[in-house]
Amino acid sequence: MAGERRRRGGEGARERARDRATRREQQRGPGRGRTALVIAAAAAAVALGVAAVATEWSRWSAAARLVTPHPAPPALPPDSTGPLASPHRFWGTYRPHVYFGMKTRSPRALVTGLMWLQQGEGGGSLRHTCEQSDGLSRYGWLMHDGVNFGVQEIRDKGLFLKTEFVKRLGGEHGGDWSWRITARMEGVGSPVPLLSLFFYVATDGQGTLKPHLENRTRLAAVTGTAEELGSFTLTFLRPTTESREDPKYASYNYLEAASPGLHRLTEVVRSSLSNRFVFTPPGGPRRRFFAVDTFQGLPGEHPREGQLLLHQVTLEPPGIVEVTFESGSVVGRPSRLAGGALSAALSQHVAAFEQRFEETFGLGRKGFPLPQQRFAQAALSDLLGGMGYFHGRSLVQSPLQEQPVAAPEAVLFTAVPSRSFFPRGFLWDEGFHQLLLARWDPVLSREVIAHWLDLMNTEGWIPREQILGEEARAKVPPEFLLQHSETANPPTLLLALQRLLPDAPLPYLRRLFPRLHAWYNWYNQTQAGPLPLTFRWRGRDTQPERFLNPKTLASGLDDYPRASHPSPEERHLDLRCWMALASRVLAEVAERLGEPAGPYRVMEQALSDNGLLEQLHWAPELGAFADYGNHSAAVGLRWQSPAPPAPGQPPAAPQLVREVREAPRLRFVGALGYVSLFPLLLQLLRPDSPRLPAVLAAMRSEQQLWTPFGLRSLARDSPLYMQRNTQHDPPYWRGSIWVNINYLALQALHSYANTEGPQREQAAELYRELRHNLVANLYRQHAESGFLWEHYSDSTGRGQGCHPFAGWSALVVLAMAEDY
Ligand SMILES: *[C@@H]1O[C@H](CO)[C@@H](O)[C@H](O)[C@H]1NC(C)=O
Ligand SMILES: *[C@@H]1O[C@H](CO)[C@@H](O)[C@H](O)[C@H]1NC(C)=O
Ligand SMILES: *[C@@H]1O[C@H](CO)[C@@H](O)[C@H](O)[C@H]1NC(C)=O
């Protein structure tokens, strides 16, 4: 939903690229026109030279402001995230897009990771980055505390892999860590296929690595140094049997290569594989297998200053392989963190995790059976295990510019919506992520929010999708890299900040405040609506004839129906409610700091005025709150035959185009769904509001929003319910159940149920039923499919969209805990 994020590839992607290109054309056209007019007028006024220069200058300065960082001191104090100030967070699984890997929170960090290959005819499939197309039936962190340790299980056809890590602090560079990979086959006859595990370490433009070989083919260790990390030794231990008592027979291969960039490591390894190797266990059959041989370079490669060292161990499962990383600055190390010591450390961390999980969420106390507690632990852990540390530059463009430009280098510590499909930062998702993480680790949440606010430019704009660095970029089709400077995204970070406020230290809030203020002003000024106290999302799709309903990516709700004909007359209800929330949070922060809060309070009161809200957004004919704009209630998609082909050309395919069967006019938009609920979701509606009964009734009506699995996004009796938006765009926010909005609904119902008012009883009943439905379905789908999903079918409850999606779907943990 953060805009193109929810977009799938293929045809739809190409179509959108075309749309965007046309949009740029259109933006350019009038821009040039304006310049011409100004110049003509200036000529008439004899001030020709001056005016033309002034216009150019204003364009140039707008372009410069776009990439100028905000002048306020950074929200993160300098050096507060490095190995000295924050040693326990220095190393982490901060590469969410690989099945297993670690790196440090440094720009151009050294990376470590795992690939595997089940040997077979034709070489099998090399696994490395999380890909839906790999078809893994399960993977994800079962436990991960965000700092010290993690336990992940992976199921790849008959192969079961457990990947565990433990860190041990010491020295001045984040200390040591160890990995243990446990492999076995399940439900596979003999002979068991051979398994190759590839452990690698790679640099990204800084640092050096030195291999240490045994018998010319076994990479026993790597020593090296890197900025911030200092010197270290990485040791690849020999495999053992599952009981860890006996050595396990294995073949060893290794690769040393110049790395053409971290995003191409899979290709380097794949292109180096050869099956000229033979596995010869004593007394066993000889078998050929694929192993890294020599690396000949990749097509299109340009020289880099990166090094890759890779250790391949090939064995017949079951078996266990351990790897240790030892920091050069640790003195008086008690023992190597391997074998029994590693097992002991793991069990200590597991016990501590279980205790802290229960203390934080109390699911045992609430009577959830163990399998459901495990499910909730996995949801939280997968969100924590999806934390990433990114470094690079965004590609940004303002409507005044012809060409996109690179924003300054930035770093971002953030959770990600999906390790496979969206392994990067998304502004509106992140606020929801931090609602959960703030309960587990408020210090982490505060740091993440500060990271995001430090991405702000001097205008107060934060690009909503953060595609930083080559690894992140490699996951995004080139046409979607651009961030447009007029485009907002819901300020959900303020939801998380509101949760953190009671315990947030004043110096932290003081550093945040100038940036919060600038961010608020940016929304208030750039997304203002046609009337006072109304708001409008900018950047809707132009060219309405191409879509059943032009999308509003900025809102996060992509294809949720809005006015059929985008115009400056529109007023968007959800944005108005977000602004009320923003005013409330800004006022609270200002009051905590003794800063002037008056203007925010005035704004909050005006935006919460239920009378004005009704006047601007209550649609009597719909019996619900709604957007307002230039809208036709009768539109449809129709097949259009193409123009006859030119001689000798094949005929073009017919196309779906929009047909408007009734002229649009200014009126309320006839769509009942999530947007209609916003006054309730963000608790602007007074408990005694005469509209509350109708809102609750729409939620409970099966013809409208109620399902046995949660609230659907668009009423079943709404004209665009489950309608495709184009030939290539299936419905997205037009019926499916989304967990973030359901969480907000539970939060609001819980609050109405606990406040005096005529609807109190009804709110309480709805709350109980909705919570039961949502939790039961997410648990059931997870048990069946192994994953949390992006959204859920309103007819079957089944997971849909991408997976794994332990982004905001992990909010189910808070629903179980009744923590709002
Ligand atoms: C090298 O290989 C020989 C023969 O296979 C073996 O006996 C010896 O232990 C190996 N040395 C090391 C250091 O692994
Ligand atoms: C938001 O913008 C309106 C219109 O420009 C202005 O009157 C109001 O004071 C602004 N609110 C705040 C809190 O800055
Ligand atoms: C509504 O859209 C139609 C079709 O684009 C346009 O002709 C009309 O002027 C618009 N009305 C308003 C009030 O914007």
Give a verbal description of the structure.
This is Mannosyl-oligosaccharide glucosidase. Its main location: endoplasmic reticulum. InterPro entries: 6-hairpin_glycosidase_sf (IPR008928), 6hp_glycosidase-like_sf (IPR012341), Glyco_hydro_63_C (IPR031335), Glyco_hydro_63N (IPR031631), Glyco_hydro_63N_sf (IPR038518), Glycoside_hydrolase_63 (IPR004888). It comes from Falco tinnunculus (Common kestrel). The chain is an alpha+beta fold. It has a domain of 265 residues: Distorted Sandwich (Beta-galactosidase, Chain A, domain 5), CATH 2.70.98. The protein is 32% helix and 21% strand. The chain contains 18 helices and 34 strands. The chain has an eight-stranded antiparallel sheet with strand order 5-6-7-8-17-12-11-10. A hairpin with a 4-residue loop joins strand 25 and strand 26. The chain is globular. The N terminus is likely disordered. One 2-acetamido-2-deoxy-beta-D-glucopyranose binds next to loops.
